[in-house]
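## retry 2 of 3
previous attempt timed out at serialization; input unchanged, resubmitting
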Amino acid sequence: MKISELARITQVPAKTIRYYESVGLLTAPTREANGYRYYNANDVETLTFIRRCRELNIPIDDIKQLVDVKQNPQASCATVDNIIVEQLIRVRQMQRELGQLEQTLSELVTSCDSEKIQDCCILQSLHSAV
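## retry succeeded, writing output
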């Protein structure tokens, strides 16, 4: 299949597919005499796997490791477990940071009752915040 069909089936834009190829996440497809890339069912499976990993915000380097270990069904799950644990730690850290961001924005939104920019407490706070 051509890249447009692969993109449609996997719901991954063709530009992203080319990027994944360029960083070695997806193996380069065969090319016919006309120069078109041609993909197969394995590419669909791999790209769907990559898309799911990206939906979980797993970094590209970690996805590369997951794609690699997936090639050896008898290997230990330790690499997979470690990657998922690390991602969970990152997500929890982002949640804490987003909570702090929400609190700061809530404080800012209630800090100003002025109707003129020159007296705006929000802008003054943003200007002086370190």
